[in-house]
Structure formats: C-alpha cells, structure tokens
Design a protein that fits this description.
33% strand; alpha+beta; seven-stranded antiparallel β-sheet
C-alpha cells in the first residue's frame, strides 16, 4: 500500500471516530427543546374521614415544589403549625398530631419539597432533619394519635371504652432521579392503646370478694365467738364446774398486703402493659411475637394482621389470668399462715364442809316469877320490856302491866293466878343455861382452768397444734388430753374458713374469674377472643364478634403512584384504614414526587410493590440514551482512533524511509 493511501485511511478512521462520538451529542442537541418536568410534595397528614378530605379539613397545607426544567431549583420548607394540629376534631372523630422532638438534632415535625431543573425532585414529611432527610433520630420525636374508637363509634365492642393508635418517630421521603424513583420511611414506635372497663373494675371486684373473708376470720374470735363457745363446751364436758371460763380468742388474718395498692397495680410483659387503676392497655406492636417489626418492611406490610391481633388477645388474657391466679394463691397463703390463739382462764374458791365440832352455848334469861311461890310466870326481854307469858290465859302484856304495878290488873289476874282478889307479887330474876351445839367445819377449795390453744391454720390443718391445759375441781387436779379441748376449736376454725361453703372457697369463688374474656373477645373477635380476620374491613357490616383486624388496617411502607393516572411516585409511612376505608383512611407522613419530560418521555418505573405501578418501558429520553448507549459507541470510537493513528504513523514512517532511499 502506498504512503498516500495509508495516510488517507488513517484520516478516514479519525473522521469516522469523530462522527460516532458526536452522533449522540447531536441527537441531544436536536432534542434540546424537551425540558424535564418535575414536582414534589411533602404532606404529613392526608386521607379522608367520612368522605371529607382530611388535609383540607384540618387546614394543613403541604409543602410543594415544581420545575418545568427552565426554572431555578424550587424549594419549600413548611414546618407544621403544631398549635393548629395538636387537637383536631373532624365531625366528631378526632385525629391528633403532636411533636415531642427534643431539639434540632433529633429533627422536627415538618414538610419539605424540592424540584430541580435537571428533572430530579425530593419530598419528605414527619420527623425530618435540616436538609429534609429522614432518619435523623428514632427517638420519641413525632407523635401521631388516631382515635380509632371515635371513628368506629358503635361498631367498637362495648367491652372497649376507647381505642387509639399512637405513632412516634414517623417520617417518609420520596426521590425522583432520572434513573427511577426511590422511597423510604421510618417508624420508631407504634402502640395500640385500649381502654377496658372490665380491667379497671377488677381491683374493686377483688376487694369486694375478699372483704367477707377478712370479716369471717375476725368473727371467729372474741369472748362470745364460735371459738370461745367451742372451748367452753369442751371444758364443761370435762366437768360442769369448769363451765363459764373467761375465753380470749383471735384469728390473725391479714389481707392488707393483698388489698393495698390494688388500684396501682400495673401488669406487663415485653409487649403489653395493663394499668388496672385506669383500665388502660398499651400494646407495643413491635414487641409482639407475631409482629413483623416497623422498619425495612415490604411495601404495604400489615402491622395489625390477624396473627398480631390474636397475640394481643392472648397476651391480655395471659396477664389478667396470671394476676388473678396470683391473687388467689396469695389469699390462700394468707389464710393458711393466719395464726389462731385461744386462751381460757377460770378461778373459783368454794367453802366446803369437811366435818363438825361441839360447842357450848351459854344463854342468859330474865324470868318473871311469883315472888311468893317462885313460880316462873314468863320471860322478860330487858331490851324492849316485852314479856313472854308462860301462864295459860294470861297474856304477856298483862304480865308486863302487873309487873309494872299498873292499876286494874288485880281483878283480872287475881283469879287467873289462883289468888282470888289478891294479887301475887311479881318479880324478876336472871338465870343462865348452857347448851351444847354441833358446829360444821368448812374449807376453801379451788376450781380452776388454764388452757392455751394456738398455731397457724396450716398447722391446725395438719394436726400440729400447740395446746396445753391445767385443770382442777375443788382442789383436785384433772388429767385431760389437750386434744380433747383443742379438737372442737380446730374444727370450728377449719369449718368456718376452709370447709365446704367456708369463707375462703366462697371468697375465691367471688374473685372476678374470666375478667379478660370480654376484653379478649373485643380484641380478637368471637366469644373466646380468637378468630381474627385478615384485616381492613371484613366486618364493615358491624357483625358481632368482629376482630380488630376486621375493623382496622394499619399498613407500613405504602407505595403508590402519585396520581390516579399512574404517574409519579408516592411514599407513605403509615396508612390507617377504618372499615376498609369506608369510614376513614388516614395517611401519616407522605412524600410524593414525579419527573417527566414535556415531549412525552415515559417517567421511570415505580419501585416493585407499589399498589399502582407505572408499566415498565424500554423507551428512554435523550439523557437516558446518552447514559446507556454512549459508552459502547465511545469504546468503538476509541478503537477506530487507535487504528487511524497507527495507519497515519505507519504512512509517515514509510515516507521517511522513501526520502532516505532517494538521497
């Protein structure tokens, strides 16, 4: 090949390479009138309630930005007015949102949107940082509370007085790049809060059940109680003289440790907390065994699925039943540990005749006598002057009058005394008589009883009784088996407290067994609290026994097209649908973006899992063509440039050799 030909080939290769390299660039220039069009919207609260647009009702405007490709970067940052959003009522049902963000480092509750002239866009809402990005902190942060009970109204089981969903640390972001859409979300905490009157009433029901037991134990004691009566009867059975002892009986049952603080009781496990004082049940949805967690979930993951609801119902039942079992065990242990103490005392001294003795008794008598004959006519009582007559027909008063010399007594007494009309002279004389008298001999003898019976009720039940007795009747000791005295007392205690119909089984029977049943049925559906549905509206007709999963759907990482036409991309952190959305749909933390060229370039595909995906396409705009086709063409061009340069260099070398040969 001649030198000029080689040079010509090299030049041709260089020209071809340049043409290949410049061809795409000329295509871009030819398409330069088609500018990328992008938009972004960050909106924390969106959805519908009773057919009304939620965002419009609560008057929270979104942060929006749009760019037709000819404008500078459009950006809007719109922190929410927390005063306006902190308590919102929409036709009765309230939807609350508030922020507990501790400071700028943890992010603030806001809305952000930016659209750039190159067709890219970014939006976010919720707990976001200074640059609009999420994930600054997963601390307490943003809180959104949805009053599900108010939304459900009469469809909520009466066993639940309230039902709320509390979300913390929630945010979402969406980004449109020329290569496609990207979305992300974060959720630090989600709790379901239930108000259960049955749980709130449980402490009072326990106190009411145990109060009669305390009273029954106290009634056994006292000096006239059943235990005192039983011991007194046992003593009288040994000897009637032992009846009537003073008895002190007590049953020291103390239930205060069980009853005190019942209203302050809080039951908990890693997922569920039940405050019995208020009846509030708080459920950490992430901590439930069936929970999928909160973050890095597949699009549209159901947080309140049937297995999750069933695990709530079973967890509530387990906590309440375990608490009641604990009350029962503690009550039984308190009764068996209660100490019984019965003490009896009797002390009586009696004078008993033990023989006789002979005593001489001297009697002094003043006699009224006839001074002439010495005949005894009567007996005078010197103290009173009264005379006891010993003469038939003559009274003592008459003798006393004659003895005193009273006139008129002569005629009356003369004949009676045998003297005619003459009156005998009366006088008195004192005489003494000695009488031997048999006198009984007596001694003071004691009848006494000292008895003690004691022990814990469990000891009495097992036969291990602390019993002692010291008895005597009229000084004579009585030997007695103490069990004969303690037996009736033990029987009285055990019968009153532990026997059939006793105070303990009666109290345990009054404990609110099954307090969890109406609550678990309201949560899980069905009479036993099981049988939850598969979520989001199967019970829209208000069927009895509906599960919470039938009534409410809570989805995380909801992705969809930005508008009904299927264009754009929308990222929602959490979507709450009540009765399948018929009553309400609340989207919390939303970000929407779109990017498309005005010449009809098809926008990138919505990520897999979105509920309204844009159909995939192989068509690309000029920038996409440059990005994906230019690389192999440049490689081919580089090869051709190398070939051309080699041919040119070879031609020049041949020319130099020819010139040398010519010289």
């Amino acid at each position: 090949m001649s030198v000029p030909r080689r040079a010509a080939l090299g030049a041709a290769a260089l020209a071809a390479t340049a043409a290949l390299a410049l061809a795409p660039l000329s295509a871009i220039a030819a398409d330069g009138d088609a500018q990328p069009d992008s938009s972004a919207e960050g909106q924390f609260l969106d959805g519908t309630i009773a057919g009304a647009d939620l965002a419009a009702v609560v008057a929270v405007e979104p942060a929006t930005a749009s760019n037709d490709g000819t404008q500078p970067t459009a950006e809007e940052r719109n922190p929410l007015d927390l005063t306006a959003v902190s308590a919102v009522t929409v036709s009765g049902p309230p939807v609350d949102a508030a922020s507990g963000a501790p400071g700028a480092d943890a992010g603030v509750l806001g809305q952000y949107a930016v659209a750039r002239p190159d067709g890219t866009a970014f939006a976010s809402s919720g707990l976001i940082g200074a640059n609009g990005a999420i994930g600054v902190s997963q601390g307490p942060g943003t809180t959104a509370t949805i009053d599900l009970g108010a939304l459900l109204g009469s469809r909520l089981d009466p066993a639940l007085a309230g039902l709320r969903l509390e979300l913390r640390g929630i945010a979402a972001e969406a980004e449109a790049e020329l290569a496609g859409y990207r979305g992300d979300y974060t959720l630090a905490d989600a709790r379901l809060v239930l108000d259960a009157p049955a749980a709130a009433s449980a402490p009072d029901r326990v106190a009411s059940a145990l109060a009669p037991l305390q009273d029954a134990a106290a009634a056994l004691g006292g000096p006239d109680g059943p235990l005192a009566i039983a011991l007194d009867a046992a003593l009288a059975g040994q000897n009637a003289a032992l009846a009537g002892a003073d008895v002190d009986a007590t049953v020291d049952l103390d239930l205060s440790g069980i009853l005190a603080g019942l209203d302050d009781t809080v039951l908990s496990d890693p997922a569920i907390t039940i405050d019995l004082g208020s009846g509030t049940i708080s459920v950490d949805l992430a901590a439930l065994p069936a929970s999928p967690g909160f973050n890095d979930l597949a699009p549209g993951t159901e947080l309140l699925s049937a297995p999750v609801v069933d695990s709530i119902a079973s967890g509530v039942a387990r906590l309440l039943d375990s608490w009641l079992d604990g009350i029962e065990d503690a009550t039984r242990a308190a009764v068996l540990s209660a100490r019984v103490s019965v003490d009896a005392h009797l002390g009586v001294l009696e004078d008993v005749q033990t023989g006789t003795t002979t005593n001489e008794v001297v009697h002094t008598v003043t006699q009224v006598v006839d001074a002439g004959t010495g005949e005894v006519l009567g007996v005078l009582d010197p103290a009173t002057g009264a005379v006891e007559s010993l003469v038939p027909g003559v009274g003592g008063d008459e003798l006393a009058a004659l003895l005193a010399g009273a006139p008129g007594a002569v005629d009356v007494l003369g004949g009676l005394l045998g003297g005619g009309t003459s009156v005998p002279e009366l006088t008195t004389r004192v005489v003494e008589t000695v009488e031997q008298v048999q006198v009984p001999v007596t001694s003071s003898l004691a009848t006494s009883a000292d008895v003690h019976i004691g022990g814990a009720i469990r000891d009495l039940q097992s036969g291990s009784v602390d019993a002692s007795a010291d008895l005597q009747v009229l000084g004579a000791p009585i030997s007695v088996d103490a069990s004969l005295l303690s037996g009736p007392v033990v029987d009285a205690v055990l019968g009153a407290l532990l026997g059939d119909g006793g105070a303990l089984p009666t109290a345990l029977g009054l404990l609110p067994d099954g307090v969890a049943d109406p609550v678990t049925a309201a949560i899980g559906g069905g009479a036993d609290g099981t049988g939850a549905g598969s979520g989001g509206g199967e019970a829209a007709g208000g069927d009895a026994g509906a599960s919470l999963a039938d009534l409410v759907s809570v989805q995380a990482n909801v992705q969809s097209a930005a508008d009904p036409s299927g264009a754009g991309f929308r990222q929602t952190a959490v979507r709450v649908a009540v009765l399948g959305g018929d009553v309400a749909t609340v989207d919390i933390a939303n970000a929407a973006v779109s990017s498309e060229a005005v010449d009809g370039v098809v926008p990138p595909t919505v990520p897999p899992g979105a509920d309204t995906p844009v159909p995939e396409t192989t068509a690309y705009g000029s920038l996409a063509f440059t990005g994906f086709v230019l690389i192999p063409m440049l490689l081919l061009g580089a090869a051709l440039l190398g070939l051309g340069a080699w041919l040119v260099a070879r031609a020049r070398r041949a020319a130099l050799l020819a010139d040398s040969a010519a010289r």
